[in-house]
Design goal:
This protein is mostly helical. It is 67% helix and 0% strand. It has helices at residues 5-12, 28-59. The termini are far apart.
Length: 60
């Protein structure tokens, strides 16, 4: 079974907008750390986005 970048993007709801990792060889641990960072930042952005929407609904 093969997992493509598109599969990962769809499952995790992460938009792939540019090259995420440079061409250098990465260790497994370093790759995991980088992906964890991206997912954590995405969650922070979603929380911020939801707070802004809730504030705008409350103010109207």
């Amino acid at each position: 079974m093969a997992v493509t970048l598109d599969d990962v993007a769809c499952l995790l709801h992460i938009p792939i907008t540019r090259r995420l990792i440079e061409e250098e060889e990465l260790s497994h641990e370093r790759g995991i750390r980088r992906m964890s960072y991206v997912i954590q930042r995405r969650r922070q952005w979603m929380r911020w986005k939801n707070n802004v929407v809730l504030m705008s609904i409350t103010l109207n």
